[in-house]
Amino acid sequence: MYSQDFQTIAERINDTGNKLLQYLQELEAGISRSGEYNQELQKIGNNIKEALNALQEERYQVAVVAAMKAGKSTF
Length: 75
Fold this sequence. Notes:
75 residues, 67% helix, mainly alpha
């Protein structure tokens, strides 16, 4: 996978996560009663936020393993 492809996929994941967060916030606003259901929605929202932060802050390392003279340095 090329760097540009990876970047495109990461951006799509981030956009989808942000849309999910927006949907959860709208859902929470629409629920008039407080209680266990709201707490569960907040937990889901927090999990999505954590996943998005991890995606944005992650540093990726790639190990290239191949036989001698296979083009590792060129890669």
